[in-house]
Amino acid sequence: MTTLPASTGASAPAEAGPPTGWRRHRSTLLIVGALLAALALVVLTQGPVTRAADLDPDNPGPDGAQAVARVLVDQGVDVEVVRSASALASTVLDPDTLVVVTSSSDLGTSTTTALLDQVAGARAGLVVVDPGTRLLDALGIDGDPSRVEVGDGVLGACDDTAYDDLVLVVDSADAVPLAGCFANVLAAQGGIGGDLTLLGAGELLSNDQVLRGDNAAIALRLLGGRERLVWYVASPDDLVADDGVSITSLLPDWIFPGLAIVLLSTVLLVLWRGRRLGPLASEPLPVVVKAIETTRSRGRLYRRSGDLAHAAEALRTATRSRAGARLRLGAHAADAVVVGAVARHLGRPEPEIAALIGAEAHAPGSDRDLIVLANDLAALEEEVRRS
Amino acid sequence: MALTGRVPLLGLLGLVAVVLRPSASTVWCWLLLVAILVAVDVLLAPRPRDLDVVRRPTGSVRTGETAQSVLVVENTRRRRVRGVLRDAWQPSAGATDNRHPLRLAGHGRALLETPLRPSRRGDLRAVGVTVRLLGPLGLAARQRTVQVGGTVRSLPPFASRKHLPSRLARLRDLDGRAAVRVRGQGTEFDSLREYVRGDDVRSIDWRASSRTSSVVVRTWQPERDRRVVLVLDTSRTSAGRVDDVPRLDSAMDAALLLAALASRAGDRIDFVAGDRRVRARLRSSGARDLTGRLQDVMAEIDPVIAEADWTALVGAVQGLGRQRALVVLLTPVEPASIEEGLLAVLPTLTRHHRVVIASVKDPELERMAAQRATIAEAYDAAAAERELRRRTRTAEVLGRLGVSVIDADAERLPPALADHYLALKAQGLL
Contact A371/B374, CB-based, under 8 Å? Predict the structure, then answer.
């Protein structure tokens, strides 16, 4: 605009014209469009769904267990991944099925009970990876897991010939409180319908460490024993309310007596503040009568009876007498005289004035007419006073 | 018995106990401890009846101004006492700052002053004196309320006294005015003085002038020792409120201004107030400070919801003496009550006296007549117009009987009444 000559400056806005919708919102539309494009790009270039949970059969990362799962599938095992308690409950188990539970720290008490019942009913096998103290309690096993130094590897060295001469090499492992292989890192309990096997070294299944020592062999022998493998990845979404730690166990034990003390002090506070210093002082109240009250009630009475004629008559009489007094006609001038005088004074036709303030004027037909009449009378009075 | 703020604090201290020994029994033990301490403290607290409380007379004060009520508190025992004392008054007495800390040595005395600021006319009463004396631990106190009688007389505010100086100045103007223009039945010869320019030539006393070298005029003073009778109507119509002030109070204001003015003018003032019967009567036979006494009498008068018995009131006026007087009836011009009561007895009054009716007008009535925007307002306006018309007619009827009607709103009534009195005085019509 600044480059335009001064002479055309005045017409410049007319040339530009009013900004259209497109021009005004151009930048906004461009930004929104770019955002949408970026979002579409992200969505479209996203690969197959991967999971981030440790030892998840779909997790290709170092902590995942995709390698083991793929190898098991290649070996002809039917691997079925289950990610929720409800999906697990709807899965049909049979004696040729092995259920393996990873992310077991997210396994709630109620889910554990349901899982045990389901496995026992179907006489299936169950492998629990890295059970914690609470889960051991839920499984009915006394004792806590304890840390084991693996070092350069630990030999199977147990009754089970399948693992006897294998070497486990992991970074860290826990021994479960049962007698078993690899210094009790892998132990089984035959007490329930299927076998309950506990594995304290979940790392051996991870993509990162499965190739160390004889880990791959241990994993395949552990999980590939039956035709079907149900891989249950426990999820925190399955925890129900009572699976959590109860709030009471987290609080210090003096909290309830303390609350009682606070409550007690509150009651004492109320007693302290509630005691008045002597009785209330009362006032012998006088009679309150508004002087205007009777007139107001009379107005309401007129309204209730809908006496338009009476009300109009009162208003007309008042205007007539005031106008008469203003025109110095005396207090007892006849109505017709007042009407004539007002008409002459204002220079308005007499019938018009007579229709307004005359004694024989028609009564208003409706409430609306009464309001109009009342205001016309006020205006007339004002006119007489002004002129 | 009463607790102090230390008790809940002591209760909270129980938190330490439960932290050290967390169990329910600790709570119960703590509660017991607090209860025992409080009980011991109450038992050891001094007894309020050992204090001797006497009130000094309070006297009277104009409504809206401040007075002090003094209590003398004496400790009759050797023990020192501390606590608090509340001097309760009825709310309209305005005793806001009425809690006094008490700290008395053995046989000690203290003067406690309660400021009072009455907001209502009349005798306002003290309700009771409450004493709360603390125990030695300061946990609990004994409390007792005793009746220590006391009243403060709240006089009518006499707000119209601001008009008094200007009216007194006009009264002085009447004094010594040159004769002819004001000479009437009641003017009295005062003195002779030299003619000054502006004096009416008709007032020159030629006989006196002939004896001196200068021209002499006669001067006159307004009549003195006339009688003014104020009749205050305390019936139902006076109870009506105009802008939230009872008509009675506005009428009192007007009566006080007229009384103050008339007493300075050397007239005698009699006062009668009543409704069905005469409630108050005051004769100013040579009394000084008339307005003070009048205020004192008026303080006790309250409106009564009853029709006025004008026969009795007029009888009371006649009973005050047969000398001609200016009778001022302070009553609202309410058509109904005037027509039914007053009109019948007015002729007996007008035969002997000059009668003026001073009425408190309600400005609301005219506002109501002017508002006509909605249907309810239109009907109200009709009712108001009708009422106004009836009032005008009543005033006409009264005027035909020789009665002057002064109908003004509360603010303007006192000066209007005073001006009317001055006009009558100037014309010598009293």
Answer: yes
